[in-house]
Design goal:
The chain is an alpha/beta fold and 213 residues long. It has 8 helices and 8 strands.
């Protein structure tokens, strides 16, 4: 991992592809919710392609072909909770969070809904490490807009320019850079693109300890 200019005063993490691997669980929950809502059968690829649309209500609207209701969203979260035990925490992540949370304020901003984040992080045993958990349904613009990173930093009490945002996808890195935060690529994540501009690339979660040193 490249050396950073100065230690950061706070770290905000992406969730899927950065802390946990849920690439089977989340699409399956969406597909089930769409069928329950009278929508057409959808493939995992169709669901994943829609992640860029923003929060779950936006993706459900797209997949259903009609405006998603609160009942549709509740149905999705129920399917997600029923499958949450099948997610995988990336090796080294739990140890990293325990160590980093003792040094600086730690937050999370995900494109998933706040409720989804609570479900998945709770099932993974990671929820207690975060002072702030922010979902894509709590900001106006989805990644790559910087809104979520900026709001998470405000709630942590840390200026974005003194924080790092860690994520696996190019959208995460763009959101970080546009907010003024250090853009840290989680190279172990399934959406990592080595050609996407990053300030720092971490090959393993333990590498992130250097951000606070």
């Amino acid at each position: 991992m490249a050396e950073t200019r100065q230690p950061v005063a706070g770290i905000v993490f992406d969730m899927d592809g950065t802390l946990i691997e849920s690439h089977r669980v989340v699409p399956a929950a969406y597909r089930a919710a769409v069928l329950d809502g009278g929508g057409p059968p959808r493939s995992d690829a169709e669901v994943i392609a829609g992640y860029r649309l923003g929060a779950p209500v936006d993706l459900l609207t797209h997949l259903l072909g009609r405006p998603a209701t609160e009942a549709d969203l509740t149905c999705y979260h129920e399917h997600l909770a029923a499958r949450a035990e099948h997610i995988t925490v990336y090796p080294g992540v739990a140890q990293l969070l325990a160590e980093v949370a003792g040094r600086v304020p730690v937050g999370l901003f995900t494109g998933a809904s706040h409720r989804s984040a609570e479900i998945l992080l709770g099932s993974a045993g990671l929820l207690g490490h975060f002072r702030v958990v922010l979902g894509g349904d709590q900001v106006t613009r989805p990644k790559p807009a910087p809104d979520g990173v900026e709001l998470a930093c405000r709630r942590l009490g840390v200026a974005p320019t003194r924080a790092a945002y860690v994520g696996d996808s190019p959208l995460d890195l763009r959101a970080a850079r546009d907010s003024g935060a250090l853009a840290v690529a989680a190279a172990w994540g399934h959406m990592h693109d080595p050609t996407a501009p990053a300030d720092v690339t971490a090959d393993h979660p333990a590498d992130l300890l250097a951000l606070t040193a």
